[in-house]
Prior knowledge:
The protein is α+β, with helices and mostly antiparallel strands and about 170 residues long. It has helices spanning about 1-30, 150-165, and strands spanning about 35-40, 55-60, 65-70, 75-80, 85-90, 90-95, 95-105, 105-115, 120-125, 130-135.
Amino acid sequence: MDRIKRIGGIALEIALGVFLLAMLMTAWGAKESKAASLTPARSTVSALLPQGGTICIVDDSNGNQLQFDQMTGAYTFTDCASFTLMGTGVVTTKGCTIALQHVAPDRRVLAKIDQCGKRATASAQTYSPSVFKTITDRNTANDVCGCGDAMMGTVKAKSRKSFRGRR
C-alpha cells in the first residue's frame, strides 16, 4: 500500500511539473497588445518601423499600405495622405498564412497574407473619428511601401497592370 501511495505521489509531482512548464511556456510566448496612437501621415512608412522581418502590402488601386514587423507586431497602416495608424498587434503564422490582429477600444486592424498565393487583404477601422480603410493586394511580390511621389507612381503603375487583364 505504501508503494502505491509513493507511485501516486511521484505521478502527481510529474503531472504538476508538466502543467507548470506548460503554463510558463504559454506565458512566455504570449504577446500583449500595446496602446497605439492615431497620427498624421508621414513622408515614408519604412522609417517608422524596425527593418528586421517587415512585411509590406499595398492596395492594387488606392495605394493604401500596411507595413508590420512579423516578430513584434508593430505596424503602420497609411493612405499616404491624411490617415496613418500605428500600433502593435498579435502576429500568427499557420502554414503559408500570416495574420496580424489588433483589436482595441479605439480601433480594429486585421490583415491576412497568403505567402504561397502572393495575395493579401487588410482593413483598419477607427471609431473616433470614424474611419475605415481597406487593402486588397492580388500580387504581394511587387509591393514597395513608401509615400514619396516616386512611390505613388509605382502604385499607379501597379494598379494599371493589375486590372489590364480584366477588360
